[in-house]
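Practice problem: Midkine
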Amino acid sequence: MQVRSLLLLLALILVAAAAEAGKNKKEKTKKDGSKCEDWHWGPCVPNSKDCGLGYREGTCKDESRKLKCKIPCNWKKKFGADCKYKFESWGGCSAQTGLKTRSGILKKALYNAQCEETVFVTKPCSSKIKSKSKAKKGKGKD
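Answer key — structure tokens:
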């Protein structure tokens, strides 16, 4: 009986210590945080070339900060990495230009980015003719 009481007391002490440690972590993050709520963020600037890891700078009144960010290497430079669009399916191929076109509607603007509501993208038409049915190989015996 005394062993059970001792184990229960030990468990309660451990739970209380863990709760206190969690409380201290929350207080530390509050001290590091800013009271400013009107942050203005610049674009993500890659560390080298035009994509990959980088940083963005933000300002709020007299404060400034830098956040790590990443620009995917397949992003559309025309739109910026902070503008997210929902795109339609590709349209038909234009015989005059040899290009396909599709439009995208703004889904989300990250970090107060200035984004166009609707964008249009083009790509060259495929020179290959895709067939939907595949030839059967080796199915029948001669």
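Discussion: The CA atoms of residues 88 and 103 lie 6 Å apart. Students who identified this feature from the tokens alone can consider the problem solved.
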